[in-house]
């Protein structure tokens, strides 16, 4: 797999290539993932920041649009992250998301003759879900088909195998995302006892890291949430964390070098304890109460971790250990090789099946 997530060895079989192009989509609060087959039949995965910036063309006066990393780097003061809460909350947010998504699909050469499956969060927000559907429905893709499936189901598909084995299974999935902790059991694709907590999130970890850095440096260093997220993504490791140094420019000139030893892993340690508590004492307790037999079957199978937080090295094994201790029974946890890309990959596999 290439650095951007592209599976360079995968190719689209000739029979399927005659029909609509299957496209998997995950429109995330921080990052958006597309997975599709390009014109040469090679599998392509695109991963970009979910943000948009506009500017006026200096020559013509026309509005120009930038998205993703380029928008964030070139217009940091005006760039808009329109899905910070996980969904487009109003008409303005939906229009921004539609503009962002259209720019993204056009830049990657996707046409209307496609079957689009997109992953949706497990959240009780019907207006937001309708807005998200409108973003996809009114985009330049999806003329053949547009369907949505739960993100944790889509994200679990690559963890179970190379096909759609997850659809034929009974299992539980935990989506460790930026805006929510989500959990669901699945019985042959049917969602059981969906659970959502906004108290245990990747975004909250970023805030705690920023506060911890200020405390660890005795107030000499203040970082923004973007830098805190970068520290988490680049340095967090439950297996082998190593202290690291960074440098900031000081007001009036000069620089200050500082070392981070505790400020990344201590917030993540607290996050994992909170996540285990929510899963064991709220989600699984409710699942047992609502569906005892599926609960027993789900715990006898691997629990799938999905979402960006599941990318942190060692977190799957540590979650397994702590959940086993909390439940006083052995459980197994698994994740896809790339949990951040897994929802789009699972959605693309579903789209491929539906497009046949």
TrEMBL record:
Residues 1-24 are annotated as: Disordered. Signal peptide: none annotated. Residues 1-14 have a biased composition (Acidic residues). Pfam families: Salactin. Gene3D superfamilies: 3.30.420.40. It comes from the Archaea. This is Actin-like ATPase involved in cell morphogenesis. The lineage of its organism: Archaea, Methanobacteriati, Methanobacteriota, Stenosarchaea group, Halobacteria.
């Amino acid at each position: 797999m290439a650095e951007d997530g592209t599976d360079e060895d995968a190719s689209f079989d000739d029979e399927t290539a005659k029909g609509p192009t299957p496209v998997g989509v995950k429109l995330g609060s921080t990052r958006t993932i597309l997975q599709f087959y390009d014109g040469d039949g090679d599998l392509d995965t695109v991963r970009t920041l979910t943000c948009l910036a506009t500017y006026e063309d200096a020559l013509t006066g026309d509005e120009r649009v930038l998205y993703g990393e380029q928008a964030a780097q070139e217009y940091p003061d005006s760039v808009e992250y329109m899905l910070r809460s996980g969904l487009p909350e109003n008409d303005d947010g939906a229009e921004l998301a539609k503009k962002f998504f259209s720019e993204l699909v056009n830049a990657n050469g996707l046409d209307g003759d496609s079957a689009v499956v997109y992953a949706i969060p497990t959240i009780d927000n019907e207006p937001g879900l309708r807005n998200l559907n409108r973003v996809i429905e009114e985009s330049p893709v999806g003329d053949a088909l547009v369907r949505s499936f739960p993100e944790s189901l889509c994200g679990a598909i690559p963890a179970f195998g190379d096909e759609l084995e997850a659809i034929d299974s009974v299992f539980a999935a935990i989506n460790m995302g930026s805006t929510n902790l989500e959990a669901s059991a699945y019985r042959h694709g049917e969602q059981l006892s969906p659970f959502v907590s906004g108290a245990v999130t990747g975004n909250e970890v970023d805030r705690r890291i920023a506060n911890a850095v200020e405390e660890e440096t005795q107030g000499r260093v203040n970082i923004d949430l973007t830098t805190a997220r970068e520290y988490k993504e680049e340095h967090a490791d439950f297996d082998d964390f190593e202290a690291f140094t960074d440098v900031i420019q000081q007001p009036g000139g000069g620089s200050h070098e500082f070392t981070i030893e505790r400020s990344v892993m201590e917030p993540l340690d607290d996050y994992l304890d909170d996540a285990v508590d929510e899963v064991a004492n709220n989600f699984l307790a409710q699942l047992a109460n609502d569906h005892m037999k599926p609960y027993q079957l789900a715990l006898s199978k691997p629990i799938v971790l999905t979402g960006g937080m599941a990318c942190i090295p060692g977190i799957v094994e540590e979650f397994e250990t702590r959940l086993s201790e909390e439940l006083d029974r052995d459980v197994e946890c698994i994740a896809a090789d790339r949990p951040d890309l897994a929802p789009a990959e699972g959605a693309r596999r579903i789209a491929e099946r539906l497009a046949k």
